[in-house]
Amino acid sequence: MGALGLLGLVALAGCEAPNNTFWRFGWPEGVTKQATDMRELWTWSCIAALIVGIIVWTLIIWCIVRYRKRGDELPRQTAYNLPLEIVYTVIPFLIIAVLFFFTVVTQNKVQERTNNPDLTVAVNAFKWNWQFVYPDSPGPDGTPVNTVGNSEQIPILVLPTDRTIRFEVASADVIHSFWVPEFLFKLDVIPGNENGRNNVFDVTVNKEGAYVGRCAELCGTYHAYMNFEVRAVSGDDFDAYIQARQSGDTTAQALESIGQPGTSVTTHPFDLTTEDQRGATTVGASGGPHD
User: Cytochrome oxidase subunit II transmembrane region profile domain: which residues (predicted)?
Assistant: First the structure.
């Protein structure tokens, strides 16, 4: 009962969990507001598990010491202990129920969508690359500003910090999975699901930096090389980046205009060709064969 009380009162009472390396128990820190909620759930779940473990280990050691063999006399045998069996059944059920409740609460909070996101990004996944579209930012030719990778260039998704970003993800062929490890969140991209229904999520990035992104669903021959990069910049730098793109600059030129590297820094294309294939179709790690 002590474990259950601590589990409900301390471990999962909604208190803010400490955010240092030790208390994360191996969980990454994360760079989004949603990542904080998931980290706190993980931290308190680990604490609850440790409390239960300590109580169980203590009882085991106590039984070993208290009921160790002291002679040849057979101790009194107990066939049933109904109250104890009821306790052993009810407590695990209650612990699971509490963990399930807080897991659902956190999941609903992480997947909550705002009515008015500050930015919408359309993510188009295909074998084996990514296209990122800013539908509300028309380019010089009238089409939305977009970035697409190829076998020689990692696509860079530029995002502002401290703004609510809505991702609308879609697949042109098979199931892919949009995953940025530092977001502590991934979403399978199911072909056939309309944007605005299931393939949508919101995040708020709270830390500037460059973060690798990957496909986390086995999608074919070059799945392992379907990488991209998230470049999180300040709101002012993002606005300047979009203006540069709207004026006709490429992704690299626009990034360099705000003082950022023009190419990816967290991952790079891999040349998968062999000597026998030189001169034939080139295959790159950020995508597949050349278009």
Answer: 19-114
Token pair of 3, please?
Answer: 């474990």
Evaluate whether residue 73 is within a structural domain. Answer: no
Same domain for 91 and 139? no
Token pair listed for 87: 């306790």
Neighbours of 238 (CB within 10 A): 19
Complete DSSP assignment for 110-176: HT---SS-SEEEEEEEETTEEEEEEEEEE-TTSSEEEEE-BTTB--EEEEESSSEEEEEEEESSS-E
HSE-up (13 A, CA, CB side) for residue 286: 23
pLDDT of residue 138: 93
Distance between CA atoms of 46 and 22, rounded to whole angstroms?
11
Longest CA span, the chain = 94
In sign, the C-alpha dihedral spanning 133, 138, 139, 144 is positive
- The Cβ-side half-sphere exposure at 291, using a 13 Å CA radius, reads 11
Q: Give how many domains the chain has, as a whole number.
A: 2
Which residues, given as ranges, of the chain have pLDDT below 50?
1-13, 195-196, 274-291
Distances (CA, A) of 18 to 21, 33, 107, 121, 187: 9, 15, 20, 32, 27
CA neighbor of 251 nearest in space, from 272, 271, 274, 228: 228
The predicted-structure confidence for 261-290, as pLDDT tens digits, reads as follows 999 999 888 766 544 444 433 333 344 333
- 164: Cα separation from own chain's centroid: 16
